[in-house]
Write a structure and sequence with these properties.
This protein is α/β, with parallel strands linked by helices. Helices cover about 45% and strands about 25% of the residues.
Length: about 260
C-alpha cells in the first residue's frame, strides 16, 4: 500500500511538472535576431499580397522595423504596418512608405468613394454619410448607429486610389430602443405613402432617416419640392418625436450645386 501511494504521488508530480515546464520555457524565450525578424516580416508582406517586385524594402535594427518604398493606396500602407507589428519581438514599426497612384482629381476620388459607400452592404436609410475631398485628403462626416460602421467607412475611404489621408469625423449615434422605434415608424410613414413607394423599391432608397435622442433629421434627395414638404409632414404628424429637421434636397437644387 505504501509503495502504491508513493507511486501515485510520483505520477502526480510528473504530470504537474509537464504543465509547469512550458511556462518556464516561455520565461526563458530568447528574442529573435534582427535578421530573422526581417525575414518574417517580408514573408508576411508577400503572403498578404503587399510585396510586389520588391516595392517594399524592410530593414530591422534593435527589433525596430523600418518600411520604405511605395504602395498603391493608404489602405495598403496601413496593412503593411499591421503585418510588421504582428511579427514576434518587433518593438516598433516606422512606416515611411509612400503612396504611388495615378494622378487623380478630387472629384474622381469623391465619385469613387461615393460609389463604394453606396455599394457597402450595411449602408442603409438609417445611416447618413457625407464628406469632402481636398488635395487627396478625405474628411468623412455624418452619423452611424454602430462604432464598427464608422471604422468600416474609414477603411473604404483608405482603399480608394488617390487618397493620401482620411479624417474620420463620423458621429456614432446613441444606442436607444426609443430611437429605434422612431426609425421604424418614420420609415413606414414615408415609404408606406403612395407618393414614395417607387423610392421604397430601390436597393438604397434616397430618403435617409437619422434619429438622435428623439430628434429626426431627414437627409437625401427627392424629385420635387412637393415631395420634400410631404416627407416632413408625414413624420411630424404620424411619429412621436421631439423635433423634425427636414434637410432633404431637391434633385434640381443638387445639380445646381454641382
Amino acid at each position: 500500500m505504501k509503495i502504491a501511494m508513493n507511486m501515485k504521488v510520483l505520477s502526480i508530480a510528473v504530470v504537474l511538472g509537464a504543465w509547469v515546464f512550458p511556462a518556464a520555457a516561455l520565461d526563458q524565450h530568447k528574442p529573435l535576431s534582427d535578421a530573422i525578424i526581417k525575414t518574417l516580416v517580408e514573408h508576411r508582406l508577400i503572403k498578404r499580397g503587399l510585396q510586389r517586385d520588391t516595392n517594399i524594402q524592410v530593414s530591422v535594427e534593435d527589433q525596430v522595423v523600418v518600411l520604405q518604398g511605395a504602395v498603391r493606396s493608404l489602405a495598403e500602407k496601413k496593412r503593411a504596418e499591421r503585418q510588421a507589428n504582428r511579427v514576434m519581438d518587433v518593438s516598433r514599426v516606422e512606416n515611411h512608405l509612400s503612396i504611388e497612384a495615378p494622378e487623380r482629381s478630387d472629384q474622381q476620388i469623391a465619385d469613387d468613394l461615393a460609389r463604394a459607400i453606396r455599394r457597402f452592404v450595411f449602408y442603409d436609410i438609417f445611416d447618413w454619410l457625407e464628406g469632402q475631398v481636398r488635395d487627396g485628403v478625405v474628411t468623412l462626416k455624418g452619423s452611424v448607429r454602430e462604432p464598427w460602421r464608422k471604422a468600416d467607412y474609414g477603411r473604404l475611404a483608405e482603399a480608394v486610389t488617390g487618397v493620401s489621408q482620411v479624417t474620420n469625423e463620423i458621429q456614432i449615434l446613441p444606442n436607444s430602443i426609443y430611437d429605434d422605434q422612431i426609425r421604424i415608424a418614420a420609415a413606414r410613414s414615408i415609404y408606406g405613402h403612395p407618393s414614395f413607394r417607387r423610392y421604397a423599391n430601390r436597393s438604397l432608397p434616397p430618403i435617409h432617416i437619422v434619429v438622435d435622442r428623439g430628434r429626426v433629421i431627414l437627409k437625401g434627395a427627392v424629385a420635387t419640392k412637393l415631395e420634400r414638404q410631404l416627407a416632413g409632414i408625414l413624420v411630424r404628424t404620424r411619429v412621436l418625436t421631439f423635433e423634425v429637421v427636414n434637410d432633404l434636397i431637391v434633385d434640381t437644387e443638387m445639380q445646381k450645386r454641382m
